[in-house]
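User: Last request for today: this protein with 6-O-phosphono-alpha-D-glucopyranose, please.
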Amino acid sequence: MCGIVGAIAQRNVVPILLQGLQRLEYRGYDSAGLVVVNNQQLQRERSTGRVAKLSAISANISSHLGIAHTRWATHGVPSERNAHPHMSNNLIAVVHNGIIENYEAMRTRLTAQGYVFTSDTDSEVIAHLIHSHYARGNSLLVATQTALSELVGAYAIGVVAADNADQLICARKGSPLLLGVGIEENFIASDVSALLAVTKNVVYLEEGDVAEISLHGYRIFNARGEAVERPLHVSELSNESVELGEYRHYMQKEIHEQPQALADTLEGVCNSQSLIPGIFGAEAAASFAQVKSILILACGTSHHAGLVARYWLEEIAGIPCNVEIASEYRYRVSVANPDTLVVTISQSGETADTLAALNHAKETGHVHTLSICNVPESALVRLSKLRFLTRAGPEIGVASTKAFTTQLAALFLLTLLLAKQRGRLSVQQEQGHLHALRHLPSAAQAVLNLEPEIAKLAERFADKRHALFLGRGLHYPIALEGALKLKEISYIHAEAYPAGELKHGPLALVDKDMPVIAVAPNDALLEKLKSNLQEVRARGGELYVFADAGTRLQPSDGVHIMQMPEHAGYLSPILHTIALQLLAYYVALKKGTDVDKPRNLAKSVTVE
Ligand code: G6P
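Assistant: Here's the final one, the structure of the complex with 6-O-phosphono-alpha-D-glucopyranose:
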């Protein structure tokens, strides 16, 4: 987490830094700061809270060189003294995203050398360490390279020195960082969205790279200190794509972008007559022919996508599938099976636990790896043999929405390809599924059209303190996702259960103050679910049922029915999710919480 922006230009860079930080706020938003170089001096502003607060106090600063940071606290509470940039002797300033693991030893060593620490962060050691090498006469580049060779951990950093108005140094290992290339001006950022207003030309740094950036150009050195070239990419993102436009929140915008995101993700597939494994990478056909089981690893919402996929993979493709939370798998002693396809799912492609889980899987002997990811140049994509890029576009709201539904679309394609490869998909069945996928964007739009009704329903939740979500089969993970969305953004305690488990414990919680939300598609488990709903009604629980075509449930006293327009068969989880996203959004709106930046959370979790 944490976002970094840096700039060197002939114009004043402060507005560029602040706008960049605003775009990166999704990465962390408990404090923010910037430092600029002016007349051989470092001028720093820091504040707790949002970037808007920093902007207000930085209004009178101007410079052509600076670095800036928005923070999600790991070491040290969110406070001004812990906010970045950190400085050493008013000479060196550093912004850092990541974790320095040997910071305690370094802190002891540097303290013994006379350095005075003014924060509780691990990051401050970087500033003093670079200073210790710079003060011995090394260039800023060499001082940084030497310091980094002594540090253990993950980092993306930006570094400036008070007496060097011509250079900005940056480096990455384990946390993302890219260079933005302009005309007689250059930039650094954690993510391209921060720079879209100034350039679309970007160079992604690779693991261990250190770069020296000036007005006129940049030089990149690999971990061994050798000068290297890295390819220049032109970002396809538009500045508008990361702006709020007509919407009140990014989450609302992103919920509404789902028909387009699904259409974009499925574009190549839906335009063709049949499915080909190549959509997962050149070596997909060979891998798919060898694999006999699937292991899905992911965190948060992406983990829920994996849980849905397990039902599809086992039922349609007949392939055994396990789904594990990445943070558990990475530390579990497990038995590798070389015939297993390890599928990692991640919106960002930089979630530390998911990356570590993939590395762990490889170390234990897995050879077939596939990542489903929304960020093309991410570490996860680079680490995997096969890949599928969801085309959801930038997702800025911390609560994941369009990334999730496009992940589901990708996982459904994977299911169909494996089913086909295993001789379990007739031509007619394949055509039927392709037809359903082509229809998916308009089916999603039809659910979005329920927004006013769902908003009205949500009004009944705002004063509740707890909620129970129920689903069965394919829709149990959707109940989990609905509960996660509600708790993330409205802070209402929500739990999800497979409806059949109700009587084994959670029924004890049910009374008139506990709303029970049921995901009730017209599938094979509907009659069973209806019995479970009776169990709730009999205890005075208030039911909110998300039904779909053919469910035949009637509203009555204490039973509210949200009638979804159609039943989408295997793709029904995607449609039901959209309805639950809207429910969570409108409950949060009613409660007045910060929808896009819920307390204590961050979008990309690059720490353990
Ligand atoms: C954070 C986000 C979640 C997300 C999870 C996994 O917790 O707040 O919305 O689902 O990380 O992120 P990933 O980028 O790996 O999908």
